[in-house]
Amino acid sequence: MTGVPAQPIQPPAVPAHFQTFLAFDFGLKRTGVATGNRMLRSATPQRTIQAEGDARFVHVAERIKEWQPDALVIGVPYHPDGASHENTQRALKFGRQLRGRFGLQVFEVDERYSTTEAIASGAKDADAASACIILEQFLRNLP
């Protein structure tokens, strides 16, 4: 599916009782993490997960246990023209795995330029900062 224009991610229908969220900026070697809540509409960076494959999910489980989120948010990367690429598919698969393993609803956010924005802002941990940007974008779009 590489190079095929993707359907835009529709604004999520998020139940009003979902108040706390844990967001992930998926990467093959590092996964940025952020927490946030609906009331403040802000996110806080957390320690980036530096693990691959199944080892990543051990760390994800620890974060879910620690933060007890109502739902999860993942960034899904696209080319500037909206076309999907390999990392688009990897992020979507990560979202399906999260849903299956943890039984939480997973919301997807178009994360084009989030890492670039994080680096431009001078973030010490671009992955965690990118997860914050993804989560704050998600929270801003909630009613």
TrEMBL record:
Highest rank taxon of the organism: Bacteria
EC number: 3.1.-.-
EC supergroup of this enzyme: hydrolase
One Pfam short name: RuvX
Family: Belongs to the YqgF HJR family.
Function, in words: Could be a nuclease involved in processing of the 5'-end of pre-16S rRNA.
Protein name: Putative pre-16S rRNA nuclease
Naturally occurring in which organism (per UniProt): Acidovorax benzenivorans
Organism phylogeny: Bacteria, Pseudomonadati, Pseudomonadota, Betaproteobacteria, Burkholderiales
